[in-house]
Prior knowledge:
Number of strands: 12
Shape: globular
Amino acid sequence: MRLPVNHALPIAAALLLGGCATGAAKPPPALTGPAATGPAADYPVEIGEPFSIGDITYRPSDQLNYDAVGLAVADEAGGEGVTGSHKTLPLPSYAEVTSLASGRTILVRLERRGPMDNSTLIGLSPAALAQLGVSGRAPVRVRRVNPPEVERAALRMGNPAPSRMETPEPLLAVLRRKLAEQSPLGPPPSSPAQMLSPANAGPVAPEGDKPGAEAEPKPAPTQPIAAIDPDRQGAPQPAQPAATEAAKAPEAPTPAAKPAAPVPEGEGFVVQVGAFSNEAGARGLASRLGAEVSRPGKYWLVRLGPFASRGEAAPALEKARAAGYSDARIQRVN
């Protein structure tokens, strides 16, 4: 005997399933653009048009070897990240900021134009000031660098990058003198036209604008002094014979410069610029820096030195970093 079939049940089941599908939440749309903290966030780089603060005009430029000393001030617009503001460097770009008081150096992401004050060089966010250990108007050095992506990513995410090796005291003394030559501070050397080459290890204000130039009087030339010698004022004499006599006066011999003591083999300090897996790359860099190449192990090492002390090695370290090798470091020979 065949049982009656209820044809309404399949239809009801289909309607129920359809209703469930219609009421289910739709998945969120996929992100189509790059994350704000990804590598693409560093591009495009903005240079910007010239602008003026008072009677001083600043011309932004993509200057790779930028290196200057000046004053850092608080920039509250920096938010919670380790960021900064600068008048001429590209946005965004990255710079090492060194406290001339302690030698501590940090990595900062430059994101804004400023500070809008001719007497200051860079504005630092509260987090950057805290990492550098300074407050108020602090003397600093600002040097543009090209850090590795892992450090860029940390700054883009609002985290600090690892602190750099502290600047040695002999180099800090040189940087403090440069800052003193700019005092009283007018416009800091933020413009590429005012910068020296990286081989000179830092900016100096132009002679015509350098306030410190008045504090260093130039010695008077020898010939004019001889021409107005008070012992010869009684009787007028031709100026030329007097100058000739002064020229013939014997000069005290200049003592020869004492040569630096040689560093015993296997001792002292060197500046390691880089390590290469191939000899050609190492020798190419060594020829540009005047360095030596050695292979104590698996890699070819490019080194400057040796030097008797860390202080003597400091200028060579600065030379390597100014050439773009920010990972260069001072280490013992052995």
